[in-house]
Every structure is written in structure tokens, then in C-alpha cells.
Write the C-alpha cells for this entry.
Amino acid sequence: MGDAYCSDCKKIAVVVFDNSSGDTVCSECGLVLESHSIDETSEWRTFANESADYDPVRVGAPTNPLLADAALSTVISKPNGVTSDFRTTSRGYYPDRSLILAFKTIADMSDRLGLVATIKNRANEIYKKVEDQKSSRGKNQDALLAACLYIACRQEDKPRTVKEICSVAIGVSKKKIGLAMKDIVKQLELEKGQSVEMGTIHAGDFMRRFCSNLGMTKLTVKAAQEAVQKSEEFDIRRCPTSIAAAVIYIVTQLSDKKKTLKDVSLATGDIAEGTIRNSYKDLYPHLAKIIPTWYAQEKDLKNLHSP
């Protein structure tokens, strides 16, 4: 149990974690705040005489097939509780420290973005391939790792904006991530002899997260999701995040809790207000077919004006 902000209750409420389903549920209204969570923490076990005075001891680190000897290593203790470096028990040499540090950085960024383990593992695999080709030498490592995570999100159909990746990659700009991404894709294509599949980005991929940032009601979120799905039927030549932002702005204008362009801009990762405004104009001629009729009638749509 713990405390978290519930978008329905509009307050900090006690939440309960359901171990059987992996859902985090608001104890006040029953809203599922997070679903299908996976407990990835290490298990504890000790064979010593257990008492309240002793901490449990880990049996070892999880195996990692991307590291030498699958990271099966032993920590040799020194006097006064100081430990030596990790050494593999089978060969007696130091594992690749750079890989360990890189994987830790990817794990930290993934945790801060709330990404699932499959994305983190995919990012690790991408970095390992680049590292094996020695193409990462002399490159900005932080940008390289951030780019690996961005590509992994795309390939696992859970895209994040470059802005979101930047928010967890300290000191790395969008431009540097873009350059690193081009280098990675080039290297992977040379290795495979074919183009790298990056996955298709849809405006709907960002909708739930953006709506959550704005604290929208379930009804408004549902309308936004339906609207953005219908918008794909039209040739609206805007990037998915801009379309998502414009749809959110439109549905909130049709609700009792209107949001300003600035509000939407901040909630969608600082998408420029002008960009949202232009996307709105492109969507406007199709609103009658995009906005669900159960949410707004045609007469309501006619009252909408360009921001």
C-alpha cells in the first residue's frame, strides 16, 4: 500500500497493489492507476541464523547473457567490509565494466520513464551490438544510450518522444540523440544487410500518457482516444504527437474543464502552441467525423473557434 494521485478522485489517495494481477488500484474509487506491473526486484534468502539483528543476503546478481559468462560472478570480501571488484569464478578476469555501466544507465533511464523490462532489454541488446562493432568509441556515450532506448521504445511499439528521452538523459540534447540514432541505425543496417525496422508511430500511442498529464476525466479520455483513432482515416500531414495534442485540445474545449493551449503544450512535452494551433486547423474540417457523437453534437462543434 502507498499514496498516489488519483485522476478521478482529484487528490492523493491510498493505493493498493494487487499481486495477482499486477494492478495498482485507488482504494477510494477503484480506478486502476497502473496495470500489469511486473515485480523485477531481486529475491532475498539467507541460510544464517536469522534474527532481527541481521539483514538478509542476496544470493547473487541476475544472469545477463549479454555479459561475459552471463554475469555469473563472485564478490570477494576484503577486511573491514570493503569488497573487491567483481571477478568471474570460471576465468578470473574482470567483466566489461563499460557494458555494466551502460546497462545500469539504461536501467535508470527506463525506470524513470516507467518502461517495461522488454524495452530495457531491447535497448541493452542494441547497445551491445554497437559496442561489439567498436562503433561507439569516440561518440557521446550518454547520447548513444539515450538513442538506444528511443529505438527500443519504437521497436517495442511503446514510443516515447525525443523530449521525454531527453528528460531522463542528463545533459543530452535532442540534436545529439538524433545524430546518435542515425549512427546506430547505419551500423545495424551494415550488420544485417537490410533496413532496420523502427515501428510505426501513431498519435494514439501517446494519448493515454498525455491525457494523464492533464488530469482529464475518464469520459474525456475515452472521447480523445476514439477521436484520434478516427483521425487516421484522413490525410492529415502532421506528426503523431502534434495530432494527439490537437485532439486533446479540441475534446477539452467541448468539456466543462477546458484546457488552454499552454496547458496542452506542457502536458505533451512542450509541443509548441503554434504547432498545436496549426494541427487544429487541419483537423477542423473533419471534426464532425472525428469527434464521437455521444460526446458532442454537430451544433457543439460549430461553436468551436480556431485558437
Q: What stands out?
A: The chain has a mean pLDDT of 80. The chain has twelve helices and six strands. The beta strands are 2-6, 11-18, 23-26, 32-34, 73-74, 87-88.
